[in-house]
Structure formats: structure tokens, C-alpha cells
Amino acid sequence: MQDPQQAARYRDKLERELGKTVLTCLQDATTEDVVLNPDSTLWIKRTRGDFARVGRMSPTQAESAFGTVAAMRGTVINHDQPILETELPLDGSRFEALVPPVVRRPVFAIRQRPRSIFTLEDYETAEILTDKKDERNRRRHKDEFLQMVRGLKHVEVIRFAVRLRKNILIVGSTGSGKTTLVNAILDSLARICPRDRVVLIEDTPELQCAVENSVALLAGGSVTMLDCLRACMRLKPTRIVVGDVRGGEALTMLKAWNTGHPGGAATVHANDALSGLLRLESLVAEATSAPQQKLIADQRVEKCGKWLSFWATRMRAISLSTSRPYASVSGREEVRVSKFEALVVSSAARLGVDELLLLCGAILLLLFGAVGLVVSTQLIG
């Protein structure tokens, strides 16, 4: 048991170190999250609102506060243990803190505990719960996104994917320009969705994000990419961008993308877009032996004019290949697959038996170097 007088001294010290701005935010009943970014800016998210900048906190002040929280919880945070996950001693809020080398400068995220309970009647009054006649409850058609982007230029498809929060998987060989393309997508993201909170995760600092509210995590030493992915989930990200997926962290990334954090991006080493999904499946297998195909994507093959595209419907993603163009053959007609071969994903849908057989046949033909690819002209929805 901690001495009451010592606990009181620690509490007073922590209040001084957090400062008036943070304490005022914590006392506000509408506050949901208070975060500190590596650029020393403080941000607050209130109920039914976006993140807003409220002030600054120096790295020295932040590190001092982290040390006090760690001491009160009987643990440490330092260069060897740079991630602290605990409760804030002041009010029991969830507290996540990170220090170098995982981040450039100290970072924290405080998640307030709920202060009020909403009843089912409140949900009904707010028209969150309605009935099946409500147009907002209609099931979105699985090809809605595909219809929106059909016939558009590749750059417009990518912009639509960013705006509609589709996950984007960049596929290519070493030196093919995967990271360069991710940086271009991040530049587009900063202009299209400037209010989003973006968390970058990589093991080599290469990504460049112009979004004002962003945090970059760097894996290294005793901190793995998987550790960074787990930590980022408590940093209130809107989007999660992973520099290079090459291990079992692929499973955690997919779970994050599919559980409330869509609109992310990642790179993976493979020869083309479809091989990128197969590569992702093999990386997931390093973390679990259970099949995870549906978590990655449900797939089918469709011929659209002179373009051969692999449509997926679960992952809400676009898989872009940065490898060199190649030619494929559909019947007697040559199909040119462009440098930015796109794997576009719409809303959730399930495969029919005919589609599954068609997919398996297409994969076998591609893997064994066949020169013919027969594509069905009608698929079961």
C-alpha cells in the first residue's frame, strides 16, 4: 500500500505536470479523448465533434508526467520500455504513453471513462435505432463502389478510395516505388481528409505525412511492428498506415482495418496485385493457423472491357501493383494489365459456388504460368 501522504504528493505533482489545459479538458463532461502528438501539440476530441487543437506541452513536461504516472502505478517508462499502458491516477481514464525511440518526441493519449449512460429510448429519439423501412438501413449493394469508379482514370479511383475510406494495399518488388506511392496517397489524404488522425507505423522512417494531426511510430530494438500496431489502437487513430508488412503483424493490421479503422494503407512485397493478397495470407499464417481468407478479401474475377480486374468485396481495399506491366490473354483477345493494376473492394458480400470455382481456376492458371484465362460473362451476385 502506498503511503497516503506520498500518494497526495504524487497527485499534486502530476496535476502540475499535466498543466491547466489538460486538467480543464478532463473536467469537461463532453471530452472523449486528449492526445499529445510528437510535434508537442495537444488535441481534444469532444462528443460528436472532430479533433481540435487546444495547446502545447513541452517534451520535458510530458516525460516528467509519464514518470510520475509510472511511479504511482509501480512501473517504469524509459528507453528500454518505451510504452506505458495504464490508468490515469487522477480519474481512472485509460492512459497510453510512448517515448523515444518508438516516437520522435513524447506522445500520450487519454481516453475518458463514460460519464453518462444512454438508454435505448435515447437511441430511438436520436433516430439511431429506427426500423427496416428507414432508407438509411438499406443494405448497400456490393458493386456500389465499383460502379462509382468504373471508367475513371487510376488517379481518380485512388482519390475515391481515400475519400470513401477504402483500405489500400501497395504491392511490388524491392525498389519498385511502393513507399513513394504511399507518400503520394498520404499527400492526397492530407488534402481530401485534413481532419483525420493518422498513425504511421514503420521500421525505417520513410513515410511523409502532411496531415496536421498525425503520429509516427518506429519499430526497433525490443519494440516490434506488432507492438506498435497494438499501441496505436489506443492512440485514437482514424486511419492506420503501415510502411512495410512482412510478418505476423499482418493479422493485427487486418483486424484493425476491419474493426472500426478503415481507410488505411500498407505495402507488401509481391509481383502483382493478386499475388499481394496471397502474400498477405502467408504472412497472416505466421500468426495463426486458422484460415483468414475472409478477413483479407472475398475474391472473384471479372472482365471489364479490355481490363482484367480482380474484384474483392470484404477488405474494402484497393491493391495497387507497382511492378512492371505484363500481358495476359482472355480467350483470343489480349488483355493489357497496367502498371497500376487495381484490386478494388466494395461492401461486404459472399461468393457463390460458381464464383469460387472461377476464382480457384483463375489462381491456378496464374500460378502455373498459363497463357489462357477464361472469364465468365455472368457471375452470381
Write structural notes for this entry.
The chain is an alpha/beta fold. It folds into two domains: 108 residues, Beta-Lactamase (2-Layer Sandwich); 228 residues, 3-Layer(aba) Sandwich (Rossmann fold). 32% of the residues lie in helices and 23% in strands. The chain has a seven-stranded mixed sheet, with helices on both faces. A hairpin with a 2-residue loop joins strand 12 and strand 13.
What would a concise description of this structure say?
The chain is an alpha/beta fold and 381 residues long. The protein has 11 helices and 17 strands. The chain has helices at 4-27, 59-72, 120-125, 144-149, 154-163, 178-192, 225-232, 249-257, 273-284, 293-296, 353-367; strands spanning 31-36, 41-46, 51-56, 83-87, 94-98, 107-111, 167-172, 198-202, 214-218, 239-242, 265-269, 299-304, 307-312, 317-321, 326-330, 333-337, 342-344.
Task: Summarize the SSE layout with pairings.
Blueprint (H helix, E strand, L loop, with lengths): L3 H24 L3 E6 L4 E6 L4 E6 L2 H14 L10 E5 L6 E5 L8 E5 L8 H6 L18 H6 L4 H10 L3 E6 L5 H15 L5 E5 L11 E5 L6 H8 L6 E4 L6 H9 L7 E5 L3 H12 L8 H4 L2 E6 L2 E6 L4 E5 L4 E5 L2 E5 L4 E3 L8 H15 L14
Helix pairs in contact: 1-2, 5-6, 7-8
